[in-house]
Design a protein that fits this description.
Oligomer: heterodimer
Largest sheet of chain A: 5 strands, parallel
Number of helices of chain B: 1
Number of domains of chain B: 1
Largest sheet of chain B: 5 strands, antiparallel
Mean pLDDT of chain B: 81
Distance between the termini of chain A: 35 Å
Strand content of chain B: 35-45%
Strand order of the largest sheet of chain B: 3-2-1-4-5
CATH architecture of chain B: Roll
Radius of gyration of chain A: 21 Å
Shape of chain A: globular
Strand order of the largest sheet of chain A: 2-1-7-8-9
Number of domains of chain A: 3
Number of strands of chain A: 11
Amino acid sequence: MVEKLRFRDPELAKKIVQKIREVTPKDETVKFCHVCGTHEWTITHYGLRSLLPQNVEVIAGPGCPVCIVPAAEIDEAVQLAQKGVVISCFGDVLRVPGSHKSLLEAKAAGADVRVVYGVSDAVEMAVREQDKEFAFFAVGFETTAPSTAVEALGNPPGNFSFLVSHRLIPPAMELLLGIGDLNISGFIAPGHVSTIIGMKPYELFPRVYRMPTVVAGFEPIDVLMGIFMLLKQHAEGTARLENEYSRVVKWEGNTKALEIMKRAFAVTGGNWRGIGRLPNSALKLHEEIAVYDARQKFGVHVEQGKDILLGCECHLVIIGKIKPCECPMFMKGCTPAKPIGACMVSSEGTCRVWAKTAATQAVS
Amino acid sequence: MCLAIPALVTHLDGGKAQVDFGEGVLRDVNVTLVDTKVGDYVLVHAGYAIQTVDKEDALETLALWKEILATENEQGS
């Protein structure tokens, strides 16, 4: 318990902030990007931006796996639900807007949509209720995909299938580097995605793009240390891959989980809300287990959906181009109680995090 | 959504384990993705243990932070 508290020790935080000041350049703005909703939560909840020198910026990239699910895939889930298939999903997914309606609206209109804690609960439901068809809406990055893989390979019951919407983080990070005017000076790589994939997939960022990259944990001290490590590299003019979160992130990742993912999924191109199509960024079930693919089983396929409503600037928030408070709808037409854009829906969406923690005053 | 919470493994039964999140919160989780034993801490995400928490590495991290603190103190700040 004492150890746990050290990860939030204000005195230690003060010392790290002092170190950060020492290595921060005087004459330029340095911008780092993280790609994890939990990092955004830690940063805003603990007010970490207000502790940083004014010329050190931390922006949020596409790190919320719920926010980037394209409307077309919400539409597919809604269509399945309307066909009488019981949809099970994570709670965050319920209110994400589709082209016409969200799963919550489908549920209000009579569809059977159930929130589960994890995919194994969804499978248990299908075992208990053999007279119904069940589809699990498998959303999430590499942190979540292994659990889907375990169930898909574990001979699920015949009345169970998967609507796979998993996405992979490294291709999205590479995309950000192609956006010239973002001017990123380093990545804070996501701790729990890295628990699974390890360090290797990030090697190209320092090697090819000369981009300092630090995998960081989620306690406030972890994030401050990650920022310090990036600033230090920046000051030295080097670009390395470093691991601040070594207590759970190993160089090779979770090899068992990676092996199971490889057996269950093939890598394919996928659409990201607000971003568009990214090659090699999505997963689909291998042919041998495609019998569990809900799209094939029920003949559901939506090619294109309506991702961004008029006036909503989620597409710019998702890539870190603007802050939530720079969107004209933020906390006006779009609020946590009545979200318009996907970033306001999930508890890890950047707009939702800012709305809930009143972080706008500290960072705008 | 990538939130993962450390928990103590209290019982192990094949691919399933009972874990203690602290303060009396117990839950059965799937441990097929990790090699673990009773007494280990695991990181739990959506009902699955996704990694064992390395105690030595955790202590090393804390030591590293302490070192920064010590350097600062030596400098009299």
